[in-house]
Design a protein that fits this description.
- This protein is an alpha+beta fold and 152 residues long.
- It is 62% helix and 14% strand.
- It contains two helices and four strands; from the N terminus they run ααββββ.
- The strands form two sheets. It has a two-stranded antiparallel ribbon with strand order 1-2. Strands 3-4 form a two-stranded antiparallel sheet.
- It is rod-shaped.
Length: 152
């Protein structure tokens, strides 16, 4: 005689197979979505870093150009003054006015001053020639630059 099989034991395993498949599918899709989100986040970060690098390079180039133009403007103004003083001895009131006008036309320059061989103010773009003390600062073993400080 055949023994009756209990169908109730095989029945739950049939129901669990579709549940396992759905669970695996949901987990796989969630992993794909999470991977896509992470990939996009990493790509956006890389893109932002590249754009920041370009912006910093542009800013550095702009700053370098500005500094170069600042020094060129002062160099052009001072070379004209040097040529004038090399061949002429201008009147103080006229040359002081020229220095003041030149300083006003160049916003990056606050003042111009010309010192004589003893370190005394000869010409100045300031309304009055300031009193100075002279300080020798060697720039190389052969030459020395004379720098001035205003005294109060």
């Amino acid at each position: 005689m055949a023994t009756p099989t209990n169908t109730s034991t095989s029945y739950p395993s049939r129901l669990s197979a579709p549940g396992v498949i759905v669970t695996v599918f949901v987990l796989a899709m969630s992993a794909c979505v999470l991977g896509l989100v992470l990939w996009k986040a990493v790509d956006a970060r890389r893109s932002a870093l590249l754009q920041s690098e370009v912006d910093i390079r542009n800013l550095a180039h702009s700053l370098q150009e500005h500094a170069s133009h600042t020094f060129q403007a002062a160099d052009v103004a001072m070379s004209g003054m040097v040529d004038l003083l090399k061949y002429q001895n201008p009147r103080a009131d006229r040359f002081n006015q020229f220095l003041a006008n030149t300083a006003k036309s160049l916003p990056q320059i606050r003042e111009f001053g010309v010192l004589d061989a003893t370190g005394e103010w000869r010409y100045s773009s300031l309304p009055d020639n300031p009193a100075t003390t002279t300080m020798i600062v060697p720039t190389s073993p052969i030459t020395a630059n004379t720098m001035t400080r205003r005294c109060a």
